[in-house]
Predict the 3D structure of the following.
Amino acid sequence: MVDFVSVSLVFVIASTLLVVRILYVISQSSKPARNASQKSLSTLVVLGSGGHTAEMINLLTVLQKERFAPRFYIAAATDNMSLQKARVFEDTLDDKISLKGANSIQFMQIYRSREVGQSYITSVGTTLYALAHALWLMVKIRPQVILCNGPGTCIPICAIAFVFKVLGIRWSHIFYVESIARVKRLSLSGLLLYKLRMADQLFVQWPSLQKQYPRAHYVGRLM
Amino acid sequence: MDDKHDEYKRTVFVTVGTTSFDSLVKTVDSKQVKEALSAKGYTHLVIQMGRGSYIPKKSSGEDGSLVVDYFTFSSSIADYLRSASLVISHAGSGSIFETLRLAKPLIVVVNEDLMDNHQSELAEELAERKHLFCARPQTLCEVTKSLNLDTIVPYEPGDANPVAKLINKHLGFPVD
């Protein structure tokens, strides 16, 4: 009986601490960072198919490359085009501002949690598999900044990044740009990140979306 | 094809993207739609049919009808878009914005068979802003018949700077 009480007590305290820590992480994530050193930040870019990649490349084009480095690109294993487009983009950058070291730009593939057209029920199994693979990649990369814009691939990545934040393994800033294709409703990925408050900032490209999701930032069209 | 013909060549390019969209290919290949396109002054029809199983009928246009050709995939979709006078596309955002950037008249046909059909949102929004025309396979013929290119409002490309600024600000980088 005493054992049961003490075990329960430990459990209650541990859960309380965890909840407090999660709330702390969420509140800190929404605040601007103090970045006095102005050092470059390792950046993970999660690419999606077709239109998603084009939107992400448009964003990367205007971001200061020396601030967001080294850069890691991740795309679905079934997606041959996106990493190719990212390679072409990196090749067009001026060599003078590219970083020393061969590992400053890396391209990686990840298993997808859900293919276009796959049912939500079978998505559960594939999502778990994708999660394990994402964990392996995230342990290796431990990015300081995560940029993603829609594909389901980014959900395991962002979930792991959030757990890393809670556990104090790595603090990463998560930015999510909802695809321009979403005019009236957030995508499943966007909705999850919004509701679970996993993203530091969530951007939308249509004013009608911002009205519906007031914590989102309206940024106009990227395309 | 000789140069003499090229002068009068007005090509309609149909693209379904990386998947299949048989109901679009079938509709475009129908007598009514082809006649409607002819009536609008188009001379050639090139169909990118993707993984679809419906094979359109090729035609050399000897009887004065449309010249019809098709292929499954190509690495030079951009070239086909550039040489087209009208584009009929699936509702994928990549295809839509590539066509709008080239300032080509565009009819987007929404695939209603997709499970998570959010694609109509974008096409309908852009149609409301008069950047393109929006149709379903069953309404493509009507849309083609009433096609008036003078109503098109040119699309202004977007700007990624606002979001880049917010990201920099949030990370504590100076924003100029």
User: Anything to note?
Assistant: Chain A touches chain B through 47 residues (CB under 8 Å). The longest strand of chain A covers residues 71-76.
